[in-house]
Design brief:
The complex is a heterodimer of chains A (560) and B (726).
Chain A (H helix, E strand, L loop, with lengths): L1 H17 L1 H8 L6 H7 L6 H11 L2 E4 L7 H14 L9 E4 L10 E7 L3 H8 E3 H6 L15 E6 L5 E10 L10 E7 L2 H13 L3 E2 L4 H8 L5 H25 L2 H26 L9 H22 L1 H7 L1 E7 L5 H9 L17 E7 L2 E7 L9 H16 L2 E7 L6 H10 L5 E6 L6 H13 L3 E6 L8 H11 L10 H28 L4 H19 L4 H11 L5
Parallel strand pairs in A: 2-8, 9-11, 9-12, 12-13, 13-14
Antiparallel strand pairs in A: 2-3, 3-7, 4-5, 5-6, 6-7, 10-11
Chain B lengths: L1 H5 L2 H9 L1 H13 L8 H9 L8 H12 L9 E4 L3 H12 L4 E5 L13 E3 L3 H10 L4 H7 L1 E7 L9 E6 L1 H13 L4 E5 L2 E6 L5 E6 L4 E3 L2 E4 L8 E4 L2 E4 L11 H7 L5 E7 L2 E3 L9 E3 L23 E5 L2 H9 L5 H4 L13 H7 L7 E6 L6 E5 L7 H9 L9 E3 L2 E7 L17 E3 L9 H19 L4 E4 L5 H11 L24 H12 L4 H23 L1 E2 L5 H10 L7 E2 H5 L6 H6 L9 H12 L1 H18 L17 H10 L4 H6 L5 H34 L1 H12 L1
Parallel strand pairs in B: 1-2, 1-10, 2-6, 10-21
Antiparallel strand pairs in B: 3-5, 4-5, 7-8, 8-9, 11-12, 11-20, 13-20, 14-18, 14-19, 15-16, 16-17, 17-18, 23-24
Helix pairs in contact in B: 3-4, 6-15, 7-15, 7-17, 18-22, 26-27
The chains are: A alpha/beta (560), B alpha+beta (726).
Chain lengths: 560, 726
């Protein structure tokens, strides 16, 4: 038996030599225990390794022919295929924050890129300090030297500096995943890390699935068999956890928005593709209505992106305006919250004449508080300007906190003020001075909040004792949909994933609009629509092509 | 061996040319075949005979004569059962590859018959026709020869969906195809009803048995039974066993296939009534004319012979039609409930249309000629299961047909098919080696789909008989590949029709590049002769030359009307010294405009100009799709071993295990397209594969170690074997 085995291996080996390309492929599989093979079977170190895979495909020759007219491109395809035959070929480049997030921030956090385009992505986001001195425009051609640390900055697509980092390139195969890996060591705060992550995603990387680095390491032969079995367990456990999380994540308004946009994509695809396949039998396509639908879809995606809110929060943080009548304790609130003496506090109504800013961080989201002049009818010119500025601040803020005095309760001025600032922004009613207010006025205020439907939440606070500030933070998080972010930050990763797909959708729709403007034939529209639908399907997890077909047959009366 | 998968034409070319070095390996591979196979000696002898790769006619003939010494009248290399569109392409491809081929049919006078709509092409289907032609098949040539009318559809919708449809003369079509079949070397044709498959000891096919007791032997058999296997036609409540109206069904084969372990199921399709052209009043009907400038299916200019075109007409259903149907729904097989087999959604009967789309007041009906010299008119869109006595009143409710006479009633046909997951992508069945299925037996409809499968099974049957590797067209290589991949992967419950929406990368699978995608393969296989190959190469050279010219020739903005017309047509400014290429990329600018201003190339054909324009105009899109494809195909083409035990993979979902065990996909990509298999399943599968590979490796390493030790210490190994046996 042993004899026959080795005998046949020789046969296979000869076949390999008859076709040089296969031998070339074999080269790659060498690393595993080559020494052993070499000693015992020195005539052909690769043979024994090649056999297990070879067996199944010997009966068939697979033909993947390309278009000879685009031969240059295909030549490359084929070459690549040969060079990598024996390795696990992951087509995509993945990125993730690999240091733990949530909990107290560490001094340093690491964003890891892995995959065939890791260097390319890094090149897009990383500007080495060394090269920048020489020539700014040349900085695109960053050539990493494997296992050498370089200092520089991460910049976004507009060239704005995101963070200063150390880049550690580890080129294949000398890396954890045996692919090209670039690690970016950033500042440890969540905001920095997420911005860097985001920049990498924008530069073409994809967010890693849970355990994906380890999976790739395994599939590329990096781990041994016992480790492999652990990976298997790990992956199955993690992916079910991820599935749970994903399910949880797609509840609510965001999910319904995604679903509705996706449904619209499918509907449009249906409209267009039915006409491609059954031209004779259908009424002509109403191009104008298609364009309108596409525009409304783009808008929806934009607003879905806003719902996900991730982008805006991490880039510019959040602005919260504190408005209210004079002397309800807005400035005290700001001081107590930001633990500073940023605003001057007196007993005198109308002390604050201008907008005062202070910064706080809520669950990693940077927030700028805007303390404003108390809004009232006044003849004082300075105060008048202050009041105007308050109104402007209320307009630009992302969230409005309306402060009232729990002591005085809801007044007519409050009603007037509410009418004045009229805003569709999320609003929180803060009933300040709770420490010295009678319970009856609290009830009255609560009733009032229910009557005035504009308020999303109400919180009782005391700037003096600091009571209620935590509830206020929670209220803000809840309004922004971040309240379910567990301390481990899991919810965030789900949101980022969704966000990534939304960005993909947005880009596809943008290209679609471009195609329409350039009056490209409608078949090309389907390419982008499909891309958009696929991206959205990543969030809700459905197959597109079958659905389009079913929809065509259900919707149109076609057929001969 | 995945290297071989990616290795394309050139590889195997080298493979064969380096003949001396390949002999030992072939020796080994055949030694792994059953030693008691009666054909083994022939097999080996053939393998040792040096052979040129490109088998043209003369060489093919010598091949056949060398093997005919060993064959009698009942022994062939390939037997094709059925002479429809699949059978003809299969038999022709096989014979042209040099295999002595027998084509068996129930009726010699009905070769390549068009029992339903006498038309070839249409969206997605025309791509199939172009692809078959690019591989050297015949459906396109015959359609080009026999057309009554031709139209390009989707003209302005994009190059990938532009498609050609031809109305054909159905009798002429059959005659033309018969002429080709009759005049092809290595190809015999004979009337017979095949009732059984003769299977050898190793689950390999050895031949077929026929109704009258004749046996024919061959190592490859292709079944293309169409609607004939246990076929039954229905008109109203009346039914009779028949494959087509007036032709007897094929009985007994289904049962015998089931005995061999094949799963069979039943499908239904239908065809509308035919009316007499002379009794139709066309005066108030909208006429549908053919294109003034005729396009062609075949890439071979020898077949581009223009002929006079005929007209089709358009009529509509009326209130009376709808009422009549609603009143008699209980008389139809589907709504009356006596036929259960499922009909196709894209080919609904008129009663289906009226029931399902209640609010639609009228449906379009096309009147299409069936031939130049016959009065039959095909009433497209009007298939029905109503009894014959109601059919004429129904037809007469259509404008223009008030006084028509019906020549043939509409009927439905029910037939057996074999869900195609029982085939691999070479179209050979997984159960019986050497047995191939093609056409409607695999659950498709349409002449084009049948022809596409036919040519692939013909190629593979011939190669199989010759001990060569099978050819598989990857999904993204062609519509043919997409079709076969869908058939063998998906759980199909209705007759499968090719649609453009089924192809994910259709921008790369256009009609204009079918030749540059597939003709080199056809050449390599031996289906493209020298003349055709020369034509092909010259065409490609002209196209690439022209693209180069457009890239380099610049125009001056100051002089010439071209620049000003380009900017006015495209409403985009033209840069100083812009290249012709950059002009062609602008919206609404076509090659014709360059020609108008004297910047075209008169020596190019219209087709070639189209190619140039498409390549340049949509370059960005094409490159993007190509890149996506490239990224995807790495992973997708990873092979799956044949002997995977999916049930033992506990990390797979239950549904995944079940479906994968049933379909037994050949590649990861195919596995991912199996219904019910989730991305998580694929990850789990990859992990299992890799673990298995490592385990095998460890075992192997152990064996080698043992081997080495055995040389130094034989006693030790004996002990080990003893232990293992216990």
């Amino acid at each position: 038996m042993v004899n026959l085995l080795s005998f046949r291996s020789v046969g296979v080996h000869l076949l390999r030599h008859a076709t040089p390309i296969i031998t070339r492929g074999g080269r790659i599989s060498r690393p595993i225990s080559k020494n052993l093979c070499f000693v015992l079977f020195s005539s052909s170190p690769k043979t024994s390794l090649l056999k297990p895979r070879a067996a199944s495909s010997e009966d068939n020759s697979l033909v993947f022919k390309g278009d000879e007219r685009v031969v240059g491109l295909l030549g490359k395809v084929v070459d690549d295929a040969f060079d990598n035959v024996d390795r696990f070929q992951s087509s995509s480049t993945i990125v993730a924050i690999v240091t733990p997030i949530g909990g107290p921030p560490g001094a340093v956090g690491i964003v890891r890129l892995s995959g065939p385009k890791a260097v390319e992505v890094a090149r897009r986001v990383f500007r080495s300090a060394k090269k920048r001195k020489k020539k700014d425009s040349d900085s695109d051609s960053w050539r990493p030297k494997s296992h050498f640390v370089e200092y520089g900055v991460v910049v976004d697509s507009n060239g704005n500096v995101v963070d200063e980092v150390l880049a550690v390139p580890m080129l294949a195969p000398r890396s954890y995943t045996r692919e090209d890996v670039v690690e970016l060591q950033c500042h440890g705060s969540q905001v920095c890390l997420r911005r860097v992550l985001r920049t990498c995603v924008e530069a073409g990387a994809r967010l890693a699935e849970p355990g994906e680095f380890t999976l790739r390491a395994f599939l590329n032969g990096r781990l041994d068999l016992s480790q492999a079995e652990n990976v298997e367990k790990l992956i199955s456990a993690k992916s079910s956890a991820a599935a749970d999380a994903a399910l949880e994540g797609i509840q609510g308004g965001f999910s319904s928005l995604v679903k509705s946009v996706r449904a619209q994509c499918i509907e449009l695809l249906t409209e267009i593709e039915a006409r491609l396949d059954f031209e004779d039998e259908m009424t002509p396509l109403d191009i104008e209505s298609v364009i309108n639908k596409i525009n409304s879809m783009s808008e929806d995606v934009e607003s879905a992106l806003d719902t996900a809110n991730y982008d805006k929060l991490l880039r510019s943080g959040l602005q919260i305006a504190i408005v209210g009548r004079p002397n309800v304790g807005k400035s005290s609130l700001l001081n107590a919250w930001s633990k500073s003496e940023r605003a001057i506090v007196t007993e005198v109504a109308g002390t604050t004449r201008d907008v005062v800013e202070a910064n706080v961080t809520v669950r990693g989201v940077p927030i700028t508080l805007l303390d404003t002049a108390g809004i009232r009818e006044t003849n004082d010119i300075v105060e008048k300007i202050g009041v105007e500025r308050s109104e402007t601040a209320a307009k630009v803020a992302d969230v409005i906190i309306m402060a009232v005095s729990a002591v005085e309760g809801w007044t007519e001025e409050d009603t007037e003020l509410l009418r004045k600032i009229q805003s569709d922004k999320p609003m929180i009613l803060v009933m300040n001075k709770i420490d010295c207010a009678p319970p009856s006025s609290c009830d009255q205020l609560e009733d009032q909040r229910k009557k005035e439907e504009v308020f999303h939440k109400s919180v009782f606070t005391s700037a003096v004792t600091g009571q209620g500030l935590e509830e206020l933070e929670d209220a803000i998080l809840e309004i922004l949909g971040l309240d379910r972010v567990p301390t481990g930050g899991h919810q965030w990763t789900v949101n980022q994933r969704q966000c990534e797909q939304l960005v993909r959708t947005k880009e596809a729709l943008a290209r679609l609009r471009e195609a329409i403007e350039d009056e490209i034939p409608i078949d090309f529209w389907t390419i982008e629509l499909r891309e958009a639908a696929l991206a959205l399907a990543q969030i809700s997890g459905q197959d597109v092509s079958e659905e389009v077909l079913s929809s065509i047959f259900a919707k149109f009366c076609i057929g001969k | 061996m995945r290297a071989a998968a990616a290795a394309t034409a050139t590889v195997s070319l080298r493979h064969f040319r380096s003949f001396p070095s390949i002999v030992p390996s072939l020796l080994f591979s055949s030694s792994s075949l059953p030693l008691h196979s009666p054909r083994l000696c022939v097999f080996l002898r053939r393998n040792f005979r040096p052979r040129q790769l490109f088998l043209n006619r003369p060489i093919a003939a010598s091949f056949s004569s060398s093997s005919s010494g060993a064959t009698s009248d009942s022994t062939y290399d390939v037997i094709v059962v059925g002479a429809g569109h699949a059978g003809c392409e299969a038999a022709l491809a096989s014979a042209r590859l040099g295999a002595s081929t027998l084509l068996l049919t129930l009726n010699l006078d009905r070769i390549a018959w068009q029992p339903c709509n006498p038309a070839v092409g249409g969206p997605a289907k025309s791509q199939l026709v172009h692809e078959v032609d690019a591989l050297g098949g015949d459906i396109g040539k015959v359609a080009d020869r026999c057309y009554l009318q031709k139209r390009i559809l989707n003209v302005s919708r994009g190059p990938a969906v532009r498609s050609l449809r031809a109305q054909t003369d159905k009798r002429e079509y059959a005659m033309e195809m018969k002429k080709i079949v009759d005049s092809t070397e290595n190809l015999c044709i004979r009337e017979a009803m095949v009732t059984d498959i003769i299977v050898g000891k190793n689950d390999n096919v050895e031949g077929v048995a026929t109704f009258f007791g004749m046996n024919f032997y061959a190592p490859s058999v292709i079944l293309t039974t169409g609607t004939f296997m246990s076929g039954k036609i229905w008109v109203g409540k009346k039914s009779m066993p028949a494959g087509r109206a007036g032709e007897s069904a094929s009985q007994g084969l289904t049962e015998n296939l089931q005995k061999l372990g094949f799963e069979t199921d039943r499908l239904k399709t239908g065809t509308p009534a035919r009316v007499d052209r002379r009794t139709i009043d066309f005066s108030n009907l909208e006429a549908q004319h053919g294109d003034e400038e005729v396009s062609w299916f075949s890439f071979d200019p020898d077949f581009h012979i223009e002929r006079e075109q005929m007209c089709c007409y358009l009529t509509r259903t009326t209130k009376i039609t709808h009422q009549l149907i609603r009143d008699n729904l209980h008389e139809t097989p589907t709504y009356g409930g006596w036929v259960e087999a499922k009909g196709p959604r894209y080919c609904p009967s008129i009663e289906d249309k009226i029931v399902r789309f209640k609010d639609k007041e009228s449906h379009q009906i096309f009147l299409e000629p069936e031939g130049r010299d016959v009065p039959e008119i095909y009433v497209q869109g009007f298939s029905t299961g109503l009894p014959e006595n109601l059919q004429l009143p129904l037809l007469r409710s259509l404008p223009g047909l008030e006084n028509c006479s019906m020549l043939r009633p509409a009927y439905a046909v029910e037939y057996d098919y074999l869900p195609a997951h029982q085939c691999s992508r070479s179209l050979m069945t997984k159960k019986i080696e050497g047995l191939f299925f093609s056409g409607q037996i695999n659950g498709t409809t349409g002449y084009e789909e049948a022809a596409a499968q036919g040519i692939i099974s013909g190629i593979n049957a011939a190669r199989h008989a010759d001990g060569k590797k099978h050819v598989v067209l990857e999904r993204e290589s062609s519509y043919i590949g997409t079709l076969i991949d869908d058939l063998v992967t998906k759980d199909l419950r209705e007759p499968y029709r090719m649609l453009t929406s089924r192809s994910e990368h259709r921008l790369l699978l256009r009609f204009d590049n079918a030749d540059s995608r597939l003709t080199p393969l056809g050449r390599e296989l031996g289906l493209i002769d020298d003349r055709r190959w020369k034509l092909y190469q010259e065409k490609q050279a002209r196209i690439s030359e022209e693209k180069k010219r457009l890239k380099t020739v610049k125009i001056s903005v100051a002089v010439g009307d071209l620049a000003s017309e380009v900017s006015s047509v495209s409403s985009q400014p033209v840069k100083e010294s812009a290249t012709l290429e950059s002009l062609l990329k602008k919206p609404h600018i076509h090659y014709k405009l360059l020609e108008k201003h004297g910047f075209g190339n008169e020596t190019l054909s219209r087709m070639e100009k189209d190619c140039v324009e498409i390549d340049i105009k949509y370059e960005g899109f094409i490159v993007r799709q190509q890149n996506q494809l490239q990224q995807m195909s790495h992973q997708q083409h990873r092979r799956l071993p044949d002997d995977l035990d999916y049930y033992s993979m506990t990390t797979l979902s239950h549904e995944g295990r079940e479906k994968l065990s049933k379909v037994r996909p050949e590649t990861i990509g195919q596995a991912s397209r199996v219904g019910g298999v989730s991305p998580a399943d694929i990850t789990a599968l990859l992990i299992t594969l890799e673990s298995n590979r490592r385990r095998t490796q460890d075992v192997k390493r152990g064996k080698i170690l043992e081997h080495a030790l055995a040389e130094s210490n034989p006693q030790w190994v004996e002990d080990r074997e003893h232990m293992v046996n216990e």
